[in-house]
């Protein structure tokens, strides 16, 4: 039995009026772990358990780590999440609250990740936050649900970090016969690893992540994400942090849901009527969610924005 829930697909009249086109919301913010990550992570954890894994290991202090902790608890297996010192007390607390062991190691994610890999035992399964076909197959269930829930999408708008969600949605579009539905792939300035790769025609490693949308903070996308852009219409969009956080605030007013700036990036593309959306009468927006942002933080970003 899958660990994720089927999420609602709602037409947003209020966003539609603002955007001047029909807007359909796929509400992944309602997943029990707070984001779409549970689809892929849940699928990967179940597959690894069937192959004999006795423990799950992750190095994500964000929504992937939280999804691993949630999945482990539901499957009755232990989880260990190794996070760097920079991970917020709140994030550590959310992960520990799911019953996972939280180990703090190193200044950067690279150090925490190296530690997690070094601690892997023979019956442990390492769950990658975005670069794993098992993960993509799980994320693709989002599109299976769209196919059952409503009209054929004219375009899908989503956020891109390492590109796991993008790979999963594209897999889902293709397995449902929607091979020509364009995908608008949105990143924030300072986390634009896909935009850079598409412009260069090869994988590009960003020197650092400078965006507040930390859940989009993969310095390099999964190779498969770039490969997909060569065989499917993918429109890359980059928005400033300020637009992403303003979109979070507008969405909170309009739909009473608090999401991370990582999700605000995709929202900003729709609220902002960006050129990549020109000519579309309707869009399907993946409201990817995120458990890492509080109202106080969002307010602080808005007040501090230029
Ligand atoms: C992980 C995440 C993303 C980015 O997903 P990728 O698969 O890394 O591209 C976007 N938004 C939220 C809330 C996330 O947790």
Question: How does the SSE layout of this entry go?
Answer:
Elements (H helix, E strand, L loop, with lengths): L8 E3 L1 H7 L2 E6 L9 H14 L4 E4 L4 H13 L3 E5 L5 H9 L3 E4 L4 H10 L5 E3 L6 H7 L1 H9 L6 E4 L4 H12 L7 E6 L4 H8 L22 H6 L5 E6 L1 H15 L5 H11 L10 E6 L7 H10 L2
Parallel strand pairs: 2-10, 3-4, 3-6, 4-5, 7-8, 7-10, 8-9
Antiparallel strand pairs: 1-2
Helix pairs in contact: 2-3, 2-6, 3-4, 6-8, 7-8, 11-12, 11-13
What's the helical proportion of residues?
40-55%
Q: Return the average pLDDT rounded to an integer.
A: 96
Coarse shape? globular
Number of strands: 10
Structural class: alpha/beta
User: Beta fraction of the residues?
Assistant: 15-25%
Order of helices and strands: EHEHEHEHEHEHHEHEHHEHHEH
Describe the largest sheet. Answer: 6 strands, mixed
- Count of individual helical segments: 13
Q: How are strands sequenced across the largest beta sheet?
A: 1-2-10-7-8-9
What are the distinct ligands in this entry?
pyridoxal-5'-phosphate
What low-confidence regions span 5 or more consecutive residues with pLDDT below 50? none
End-to-end CA span? 47 Å
Determine Rg (CA atoms, Å). Answer: 18 Å
